[in-house]
Every structure is written in C-alpha cells, then in structure tokens.
Amino acid sequence: MPNYKLTYFNFKGRAEILRYLFAYTNTEFEDHRIEYKDWPSCKDSYPFGKLPVLEIDGTVYYQSLAIGRYLAKKAGLAGKTDLDDLRIDAILDTIDDFVSRFPWDAADQEKKEYIDKFGGTVLSGLAKELGDNKWFLGKYVTWADFFWDICSDGIIYYQPDFSKDYPNLLSLKKRVKELPEIAAWIKRRPQTEY
Ligand SMILES: N[C@@H](CCC(=O)N[C@@H](CS)C(=O)NCC(=O)O)C(=O)O
Q: In angstroms, what is the span from residue 48 Cα to ligand 1's centroid?
C-alpha cells in the first residue's frame, strides 16, 4: 500500500474530492492541512505555488482533477468504457468551469449575481444529463457523482436554495452522502464551514 500525504488548506475546497475518494476505499492517507497564515512562507515549495498536492511515496503530484482521475480508476469509480470516461470528464469539467469562476472571495451580492447569471444553465444541463437515473452514468456510481455533491455543497453554503428546483440533482446528493463510506467520512472529517 503506497504512502499517501494530501496537502491542502483547512477546508473542503479542491481537496474534498480526493478525501472522498480515499474514504470510499477506506484508504489511509495523511490529511495535512495548512493554515492560511502559514501559507506565504511555504507557498513556493509547492508546484506552481498551488494546492492541493498529493505525495505518493514521497513524490509530489499536483492538479486536483488529475489526481482525482488517478484515484478514481483505482477506486473503481471511473468509467467502465472510454466513452463513459469521456462523459464523466465532460460532467466534471462542466461543474469545474462553474465553480472555478465562482467569485469565492467577493461580497454576497456578487456571488448571488454569478449564480443568477450562470447557475440555471449549469443546473438544467446537469439535471438533463442525470434524468431519472440513479447516478450520472446510469446504473453505476462514479466520481462525477461525488464531485457534484462536493461542489454543490460549496455553493449551497452561500446560497442554501441553490438547485432547489432540481429534485433529481438534490436526490443524487443524498444518495452520495448515504454511501456508507462517505457517510462515515462526513461524520469523522474535521468540521469546517465550507
Ligand atoms: N486547477 C488547480 C487549482 C489549484 C488552486 O488554484 N488552488 C488554490 C486553492 S483552491 C490555491 O492554491 N490558492 C493559493 C494561492 O494561489 O496562493 C487544481 O484543481 O488543483
């Protein structure tokens, strides 16, 4: 079993998908969390000055979705075919486009404007993609389902009614959170606001 050390800040953010993937497979990992006040003094020691990074047996890997794809394959949470992987990546990138441009550090009004302007297109598209299926890929769970749950939680923190008009997307979140390994992780993870 390789030695895993995940480094990020003390919140969910871009590391939570990796923490879900470790949790789902009951894989031990060091959950190293850097406080913001300590960040300026260590930023330069990380690739491109960004987090998260994952050290695997001492070698540093970066970019959360690249790492996620690697862990998802190992966890059996990637696609069963190349075309399924293409669909998963398209869903991930759609969600990622939306959350990457979200004005996390701006005032509430600006956040609301962003959601009003772009949220509907993303939500209706994802709701259509999911349809009446249990998971985005139909019959089997993938890390795209996890990513939706985590990223939408991040937005819901600021706007609790985000996705309230899309019951199938809300049900999907519930199903992800009810997976026993994910439920256990949510219970034991450090409590942070977002
Ligand atoms: N696409 C990258 C984005 C990495 C990124 O922007 N990380 C932010 C935190 S979410 C960061 O390190 N911010 C601190 C800084 O830029 O100094 C990924 O997904 O890993």
A: 9
